[in-house]
Specification:
mainly alpha; three-stranded antiparallel β-sheet; elongated
């Protein structure tokens, strides 16, 4: 009786096949993290005395999870859990692809029983400082510019920062927006968000007005591109290398826009202390403040899958408690 192909497959070869599948289906960052995790898993098995290059896949057992857990104790708890997630999905892949008789319920139970829980840090960010940055960029449309390229940069950056603050978009989501993604009648944009989910993002009248002004000034450049308007980026590059081409800004450019305008508005000491993601924190906090602490509304608008993520922001609306405390105990 001929043996099945997986009978001669080694544990290392199975890991390589799994990582190939991850690379094809997940983002580069996720693929890199999973590769690091599975390499650490193989290293833990080697420390146990398992020759992963020759040991057959049939030698893979649930107890190897414990070996991996012991090897991860030097890692931060958050890294440990990320690596364990990658390893657990490897076990699921082995069962699904090669029908190995592994007890996945036991794998998950071992992880729950022995993995450390990462401590949760409440999100901290300078709310008032972000409002200062927004007030600063509000004036960029009237700021004298050396040339048209700089004028377009000013209008773009103003619209970009207000878009981050009033939509809750992640920086890479904002950078990837096309003109056709935005419905000017409804003020909605349909995006592919985190986890490859389709989401609807709402734009304020303020953000829409600033985008209109920017795109009107950019219209001659868009017209020369000879491309359909809906296919053009919402936020374009305006640098010498781009020339007259209408190219989308990268995530790096988006981060640099924040760094540059924070430096101009608040000085060099605040550079790095306000990041693009802080504008998302600002958005969630504004929703909570404006809705009387409606967590469900904030969850939906921020596109959080788990309301526990949204709850982490609730403490940021404690100004009334702060005032009451100072009245009782003094400043």
């Amino acid at each position: 009786m001929a043996s099945s192909p997986e009978a001669s497959l080694s544990i290392a070869q199975a890991v390589a096949a799994y990582l190939d599948a991850v690379r094809l289906s997940r983002s580069p960052n996720t693929a890199r993290t999973y590769r690091n995790a599975l390499q650490a898993f193989l290293w833990a098995l080697k420390e146990r005395g398992v020759d992963v290059e020759s040991a057959p896949l049939s030698a893979l057992s649930e107890d190897m999870v414990l070996d991996f857990l012991r090897a991860l104790k030097q890692q931060a708890p958050s890294t440990e859990r990320l690596y364990l997630t990658a390893m657990a999905q490897f076990y699921e892949y082995v069962v699904a692809r090669w029908e190995r008789p592994l007890n996945l319920a036991r794998v998950r139970l071992l992880i729950r029983q022995h993995a450390r829980r990462p401590g949760r840090r409440l999100p901290q960010f300078p709310y008032e400082a972000i409002e200062e940055v927004l007030a600063y960029v509000d004036a960029l449309g009237h700021k004298p510019a050396k040339n048209r390229r700089e004028h377009l940069q000013n209008l773009r950056d103003r619209a970009f920062l207000w878009t981050l603050a009033h939509t809750g978009l992640r920086v890479h989501e904002a950078c990837q927006l096309r003109r056709g993604d935005l419905d000017w009648n409804t003020g909605h944009a349909v995006i592919i968000g985190k986890g490859d989910r389709q989401d609807v993002v709402r734009f304020s009248s303020k953000a829409l007005a600033l985008l209109r002004e920017y795109l009107q000034e950019r219209q001659p450049l868009d017209a020369r591109s000879h491309k359909a308007l809906k296919a053009l980026p919402l936020f374009a590059r305006h640098d010498k290398r781009a020339g007259d081409r209408v190219l989308p800004i990268s995530t790096v450019t988006g981060r640099n826009i924040v760094r540059r305008r924070v430096w101009e508005a608040l000085g060099p000491d605040m550079v790095g202390r306000i990041t693009p993601h802080d504008f998302r924190h600002y958005f969630v906090t504004r929703v909570l403040k404006g809705s009387g602490g409606n967590l469900k509304l904030a969850q939906r608008l921020a596109r959080h899958q788990n309301i526990q993520v949204t709850q982490r922001y609730a403490h940021l609306d404690d100004q009334e408690l702060d005032r009451a405390y100072r009245e009782i105990f003094g400043s």
